[in-house]
Amino acid sequence: MSSNMRYILVSGGVISGIGKGVIASSIGTILKSCGLKVTSIKIDPYLNIDAGTFSPYEHGEVFVLDDGGEVDLDLGNYERFLDVKLTRDNNITTGKIYQSVINKERKGDYLGKTVQVVPHITDAIQEWVQRVAKIPVDGNDKEPEVCVIELGGTIGDIEGMPFVEAFRQFQFRVKRENFCCVHVSLVPQPGSTGEQKTKPTQNSVRELRGLGLSPDLVVARSQNPIGQSVKEKISMFCHVSPDQVICIHDCSSIYRVPVMLEEQNVIRFFSERLNLPMPGINGGKLLRKWRDLSDRFDHLRKEVSIALVGKYTQLEDAYASVLKALKHASLACNHKLMLRYIEACHLEEESMKTDPVRYHEAWSQLCSSDGVLVPGGFGVRGVEGKIRAAEWARKNKRPYLGVCLGMQVAVIEYARNVLGIKDAHSTEFDPKTTNPLVIDMPEHNPGNMGGTMRLGQRRTIFKTDDSVLRKLYGKPEYVEERHRHRYEVNPEYVDQLQKEGLQFVGQDVEGERMEIVELKDHPFYVGVQYHPEFLSRPMRPSPPYQGLLLASCGKLQSYISRGCRYSPRETSFYSDTSSEDDDLPSFTSPPRNNSQSSGAE
Q1: What distance in Å separates the CA atoms of residue 118 and residue 541, rounded to the nearest whole number?
Q2: Are the beta carbons of 293 and 255 closer than 8 angstroms?
Q3: Where is composition skewed (Polar residues) in this entry (predicted)?
Q4: pLDDT digits (tens, 9 = 90+) for 551-596
Q5: What's the angle, vertex CA 472, arms to CA 469 and CA 473, rounded to 5?
């Protein structure tokens, strides 16, 4: 273990979904702003090996990493906040730990000993954390200096007990001066009294301390700002000083959270508690950018409406990265995002018969939107509604972005209504179709569901210079984006589609898989087989989403004519003549790789 490594454990109490992921990401952000190298680990106590087979209604979206790891959506928060690239091992599950221990037992690594939760499972957890904490995540070979670990669930959960015990031991294994515990707890405010209640937090901290972990910081989450008297009461009963009670109330944007932590001297606390060598104790230029970002978000006046036509619209977390990518792009366009969730099946003709009210409401929302987004998804439900949404956007010249399945339904729609192939379909939804416009991938290995798709980072080669998306990316020869799919456009129909105007401007390295499709003579009609939302960052929006929002705001052509740069008035909010941290991201379209064409500007 590196002698310089520091560990910050973030646990939660009272209820789940309290914002541990955002708190953990924000802690990493303010430490990185001080010049430290930061990595993150998410622990999920469920028995699944990974998140790949989850329904979106279980834990929200499945986030995909460069190495193809299918992980919890909180790792997306870490990557977006810290601007790093994590690995599948940064997501620890009970299933992974038990699998590794059982495999060792089968190989005889324990020399015939009785294998138990303590010490074998707890040792495996500690060894995993120490190993992964040393993996570089920011594009160079330097080891991180700080590892922020989020323990999923709430203190007291049965499935989380081995992890709590592991970290009780871990604080002595790495020395107490290198380990810090942050406990996030809810301070409810019942409507009947209007008084903020500290008892749930007291009980949660008492239980945590009874398990052998004493929090160094208590982060009190509340709906409204917490008063000094409440803060002092938490301090008195939770064995921390008032300065160690950090109050984070609901705010307009999660971009505000790192700023709120910094304003409560969290940087100085970590510096002293962990003896951290901080080159920039005041946060530097990066933290100023976060402050400017949150201020800009609060002062947006113009609005842009996007219709998201999906099948998991009842749970916002099912499209967490899509939502974040849209917000990043709308913020760069200086517009407030008005997202309209439309259940795809409500757009279908059958819905007009069974539920005419919802049918007309869905079409009213779609028709009044500035742009249309059809994200990825699995299963036949709602597919015809997505096809109708793509048709409407194409015929009415409304900006359209199709992601993964959204690209496939755009191709199917074009084949049906332009090429006249009325029975065009995907073999995913109609295995017996005579015109399979979308087919299952030849490399797909049937059998186990988990980890069998085309996953992770893949290269897409641009086939033409006259591509809107290529210009938005900065005119590279290729881009590398993350994939998660089993089906793709059938190459046998590509020539027919291109002759009728649907251009496949991006393909894989072998030229067999269609990655990007564009329609000429349209303000913005783009489909991508990959998931660009996984690489979107608050200060570096994803180009496909950026293009959708620019077109929806009526700014795309002027943006391209200026060399894919915003006007000085739009970027002045982020201008900084200081030379400090000049390599920090700004609101420009970034190259997604190191290969630029000779015509790049």
Answers
A1: 46
A2: yes
A3: 586-601
A4: 999 999 989 888 887 766 555 444 443 333 333 333 444 445 544 4
A5: 90
Backbone φ and ψ of 550, nearest 5°: -60, -45
- Contacts of 433 by beta carbon, 8 Å cutoff, 6+ apart: 423, 424, 425, 426, 427
Q: Classify 481 as helix, strand or coil.
A: strand
Out of 247, 531, 553, 564, which one is annotated catalytic? 531
Active site residue 413: no
180 included as an active-site residue? no
Q: How many CA atoms lie within 13 A of 123 on its CB side?
A: 8
CB 268 within 8 A of CB 234: no
524, amino acid identity: F
Q: Per the structure block, which two tokens stand in for 40?
A: 């993150």
Q: Among 220, 225, 223, 214, which Cα is nearest to 201's?
A: 220
Contact 330, 323 (CB under 8 A): no
- Among 22, 137, 139, which Cα is nearest to 81's? 22
Peptide bond into 258 cis (omega under 30): no
Q: Which member of 181, 404, 553, 564 is catalytic?
A: 404
Q: Write the CA distances from 106 to 50, 94, 109, 535, integer angstroms.
A: 22, 18, 8, 39
- Which residue shows structure tokens 């793709």? 488
533 carries an active-site annotation: yes
Q: In whole angstroms, give the CA distance from residue 104 to residue 46.
A: 21
**pLDDT greater than 50 at residue 487:** yes
Cβ proximity of 462 and 471 under 8 Å: no
Tens-place pLDDT, residues 120-175:
999 999 999 999 999 999 888 889 999 999 999 999 899 999 999 999 999 999 99
What is the model's pTM?
0.89
How many Cβ atoms sit within 10 Å of the Cβ of residue 28?
26
Amino acid at 157: D
Catalytic residue among 165, 522, 533, 564: 533
